[in-house]
Amino acid sequence: MTATDPALTALAQGWCALSLLHSRIETHIERALQAGHGLSVREYSLLDVLSRQHDGDGGHLQMKQVADAVVLSQSATTRLVTRLEDRGLLERYLCPTDRRGIYTNVTETGLRLLEEARPTNDTALREALDEAAENPELTPLVRVVESLHAPAVA
């Protein structure tokens, strides 16, 4: 294969379209969350992920798991947790069975803010997808996103 190979060119164009769709969605949601709730997309995502923890086996996430879920490095996730902790939206505590482990929970204030922000996030996502669907290059990707279903929670 060469750099001008049609298969590589098509692959690169597909990647560019996917990147463009992601950027448009993230930018639209970011503006809405910032304007309405003073949250970034990453902050919202972190609160959302942590709000889904539970007290059962494997119910509390370690920092690496949280970082993977919000698509950030561990150090960036730790900085984000610290910022939200400073705002009173999160709290950290030692793992009761392993004193080396530190868990993070969403505070009541954080849960209220998340619940207030959830409709804003959902509306902004819908708006961004509807707008992107008007672009013929992005329409197929929008349809794929719309056809995906969240994994079943056990």
* Contiguous helical run count: 6
Q: Name the helicity range.
A: 55-70%
Strand content: 5-15%
Mean pLDDT: 89
Radius of gyration: 19 Å
Q: How many strands, which pairing sense, and closed or not: the largest β-sheet?
A: 2 strands, antiparallel
Q: Which structural category do the helix and sheet elements fall into? A: mainly alpha
End-to-end gap: 45 Å
Shape: globular
Low-confidence stretches: none
SSE pattern: HHHHEEHH
Strand tally is 2
- Order of adjacent strands in the largest pleated sheet: 1-2
Summarize the structure in words:
This protein is mainly α and 154 residues long. The protein contains six helices and two strands. It has a two-stranded antiparallel ribbon with strand order 1-2. It is globular. 21% of the residues are buried. The mean pLDDT is 89.
Task: List the keywords.
single chain; 154 residues; mainly alpha; two-stranded antiparallel ribbon; 6 helices; globular
